[in-house]
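Bench log. Compound arrived from synthesis this morning; before running ITC I wanted a structural hypothesis for how S-adenosylmethionine sits in the protein. Inputs:
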Amino acid sequence: MARSETDSWDLASSVGATATMVAAARARATAEPDAIIDDPYAADLVRAVGVEFFTRLVNGDIEIPDDEAAAGIRLITDTMAVRTRFFDDFFIAAGDAGVRQAVILASGLDTRPYRLHWPAGTVVYEIDQPDVIAFKTQSMDALGARPSAQRRTVAIDLREDWPSALTAAGFDPAAPSAWSAEGLLMYLPPDAQDRLFDEITALSVSGSRLATEYHGGDFGQSIGERAKEMVGQWGAQGFDIDLSELFYKGERNDVVDYLSARGWQVHSRSRRDVFADYGRQFPERANPLQHSVSITAIRD
Ligand code: SAM
């Protein structure tokens, strides 16, 4: 379904289903013999959501029809493994540097507040739409999972006044913080992306950190085309989510330039190099991440 300014979703529909999709990829990545991530909850969370295609994917019950389809699964599994590890390492480094306040924007089915070893006294805020937050909290409780930090949830749309909601939940703008925007920006219109970084900047004292990714100005277009191919390949097996409709297309500000101009020391690496850092092969062909960069930044 096409996007609108006030659309909402659960984990089986619209943008919410993308959180289930990437959790399925994390489950597959976790099960690999040379795994670079360990998300012990991902498979159970995907099964709990109950979208048949993703459940079969984590259960290993999908028939892979041809090499193209196999390459599609390989790409998403490796991409999510590398991305997850990159953000894991970012939060670990922030903790090592003494930051005790983390904000995971668009947390989806991410389980970092449960599976990372956070320094004592760390508070982790998770922000996502209300149905997404509620489902994950209940499912993790049902799995008997316990947070490894103080976990606070902020159930709100990121197009609304989330800074007030975050502060009301206890976030301290006077203390350094570590922020992640992972798998989020393409689901926000270009102006909302800028607003998000303005709001983060306003809440970040010197020494605060931020990790995100930028895919180039036309990412909505290129990933949309790749997504359409995937629907073609997997349609017969029940994959019927048209991802291409969920991304906001059109030119957007370059995140590196935008943050640099707002008092952040920005460090970016190409996705190709980050794949190499973690021992994964970056596929050159038909790869919508060709122009992607992984970004970390520290506030002056
Ligand atoms: N960061 C998580 C991960 O990597 O597993 C989830 C990524 S998933 C691809 C996209 C997430 O962004 C979903 O959980 C969705 O609910 C969230 N999201 C997108 N737009 C949002 C908005 N306007 N407000 C709140 N959450 C949003």
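What the model suggests: The chain has a mean pLDDT of 92. The chain has one domain: 14-299.
ITC booked for Thursday regardless.
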